[in-house]
Automatic annotation (TrEMBL):
Keywords: Plasmid. This is YahA protein. The lineage of its organism: Bacteria, Pseudomonadati, Pseudomonadota, Gammaproteobacteria, Enterobacterales. It comes from Escherichia coli O81 (strain ED1a).
Length: 109
């Protein structure tokens, strides 16, 4: 078994909470990457352009020190990146619901 960093482990856990590979297939998510912002780790990924509502094509999910998530939705058009919305205090069982509400994309059949 590969030794994962804490940030990688957190990102894998978030992906699992979203629906794992089914989520990737259903949404077209790509370029999945983990990050570490001074101990607050998470998952960031891109969606196909003009696929989600409000032209959302970047999603960033961060596990906070309070053991909940901050989810930020962005729209990148050319070199311009605009934050569409940010939701704090999200629990793991709310991730799929929030993603669908903000993007209009379903995470499962």
């Amino acid at each position: 078994m590969k030794n994962m960093s804490y940030a990688e482990h957190v990102a894998q856990t978030i992906l699992g909470q979203l629906g794992s590979q089914r989520f990737v297939v259903m949404t077209g998510a790509k370029n999945l990457a983990y990050f570490d912002d001074n101990g607050e780790c998470g998952l960031c990924f891109q969606l196909p352009s003009y696929f989600a509502k409000n032209n959302i094509n970047i999603v960033r999910i961060k596990l906070t020190f309070a053991d909940d998530y901050t989810v930020t939705f962005y729209s990148k058009q050319g070199s311009r990146i605009a934050q569409i919305s940010e939701r704090e205090g999200i629990y793991c069982d709310q991730l799929q619901w929030l993603f669908t509400r903000e993007t209009g994309l379903y995470t499962r059949l």
